[in-house]
């Protein structure tokens, strides 16, 4: 018979062995945010750290996939992948190294219902004979507020003769409101995109114009004196985006023949530095001066070994 002390010792040993095994491969996942709109890309970053002390060759076997997601509803109902016969490309991770990949879950899993989902990544190295999983993270999927919608025909090229429905939606995030464009073929049940166009001030509605080729042009207010122009084709591909500032009057869309353009504003680069940011700071390093002996002051040397992606 075993006493209480022996049982506690066995339990502690089993817990230690479990922690030791789990430490061989660490799996982590992250999302930029937890709230998403229906059909928009849900980008999950997966980090796999090899702590096994040896090189791992990760490859699918006839029985097991070396990588998978485990997604379920809050009631515990699992979501199988859209294509159960998917294949993972084999990879090699040296001991102590990390593998980082960002994966769009939207086309891979049927996340087509509103609600909360639990997401977990799993890695199965056949060399170790066991599965390693990440902590579970929750994501919420909601729908935006419909601002504008129109159906048009596809004039030429792929899909000619079919229809496309453009929908412009506003989606409230915790700190801001974003504008989205959804392009779909409702008859065929195909969603071509649900694209985030950028910030949106909700005091008014965006300007929308359909051109002669049935492509959509959108001008949205992103800040008190700033606007963003987007040109998107019938398959949801962004052809052009340009930021504008107010100059004398508010920018607006004009259609002249077959051409749609922005009038009343000045284009600008929102990522460019302001004049204040371009001024040198007191902490900036001065240009080194020659020493009295005429020898140049040595500059700091950069590291000889740099890792780049």
Give structural attributes.
309 residues, mainly beta, Immunoglobulin-like, 5-stranded antiparallel beta sheet, 2 helices
Roughly what percent helix? Answer: under 10%
Return the structural class.
Answer: mainly beta
Give the N-to-C terminal Cα separation.
60 Å
Provide the domain count.
Answer: 2
Outline the secondary-structure elements.
Blueprint: H1 4-22, E1 25-31, E2 35-37, E3 43-50, E4 56-58, E5 67-73, E6 78-79, E7 91-93, E8 98-104, E9 115-123, E10 132-133, E11 137-142, E12 145-153, E13 163-172, E14 177-185, E15 190-199, E16 207-210, E17 216-223, E18 226-232, E19 238-246, E20 252-256, E21 259-263, E22 265-268, H2 275-278
Explain what this protein looks like in three dimensions.
It is built from 2 helices and 22 strands. With 309 residues, the protein is mainly beta. The radius of gyration is 27 Å and the shape is elongated. The protein has 2 domains: 25-141, Sandwich (Immunoglobulin-like), CATH 2.60.40; 144-268, no CATH class. Helices cover 7% and strands 44% of the residues. The strands form 6 sheets. Strands 2, 5, 6, 9, 10 and 11 form a 6-stranded mixed sheet that branches. The chain has helices at 4-22, 275-278; strands spanning 25-31, 35-37, 43-50, 56-58, 67-73, 78-79, 91-93, 98-104, 115-123, 132-133, 137-142, 145-153, 163-172, 177-185, 190-199, 207-210, 216-223, 226-232, 238-246, 252-256, 259-263, 265-268. A hairpin with a 4-residue loop joins β14 (177-185) and β15 (190-199). The longest helix is centred in the N-terminal third of the chain and has 19 residues, at 4-22.
């Amino acid at each position: 018979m075993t006493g209480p002390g022996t049982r506690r010792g066995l339990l502690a040993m089993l817990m230690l062995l479990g922690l030791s095994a789990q430490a061989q491969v660490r799996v982590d996942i992250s999302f930029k945010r937890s709230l998403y709109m229906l059909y928009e890309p849900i980008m999950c970053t997966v980090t796999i750290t090899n702590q096994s002390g040896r090189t791992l060759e990760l490859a699918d076997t006839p029985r097991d996939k070396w990588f998978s997601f485990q997604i379920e509803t809050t009631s515990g109902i699992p979501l199988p992948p859209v294509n159960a016969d998917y294949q993972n490309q084999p990879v090699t991770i040296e001991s102590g190294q990390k593998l980082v990949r960002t994966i769009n879950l939207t086309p891979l899993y049927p996340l087509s219902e509103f609600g909360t989902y639990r997401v977990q990544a799993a890695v199965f190295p056949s060399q170790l004979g066991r599965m390693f999983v990440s902590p579970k993270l929750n994501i919420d999927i909601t729908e935006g507020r419909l601002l504008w919608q129109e159906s048009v025909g596809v004039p030429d090229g792929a899909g000619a003769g079919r229809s496309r429905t453009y929908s412009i939606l506003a989606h409230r995030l915790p700190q801001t409101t974003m504008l989205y464009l959804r392009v779909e073929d409702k008859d065929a049940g195909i969603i071509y995109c649900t694209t985030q166009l950028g910030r949106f001030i909700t005091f008014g509605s965006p300007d929308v114009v359909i051109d002669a080729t049935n492509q959509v042009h959108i001008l949205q207010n992103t800040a008190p004196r700033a606007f963003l122009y987007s040109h998107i084709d019938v398959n949801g591909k962004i052809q052009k985006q340009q930021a504008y500032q107010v100059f004398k009057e508010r920018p607006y869309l004009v259609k002249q023949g077959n051409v749609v353009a922005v009038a009343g504003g000045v284009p600008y680069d929102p990522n460019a530095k302001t004049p204040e940011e371009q001024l040198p700071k007191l902490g900036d390093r001065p240009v080194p001066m020659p020493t009295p002996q005429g020898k140049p002051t040595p500059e700091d040397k950069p590291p000889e070994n740099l890792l780049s992606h």
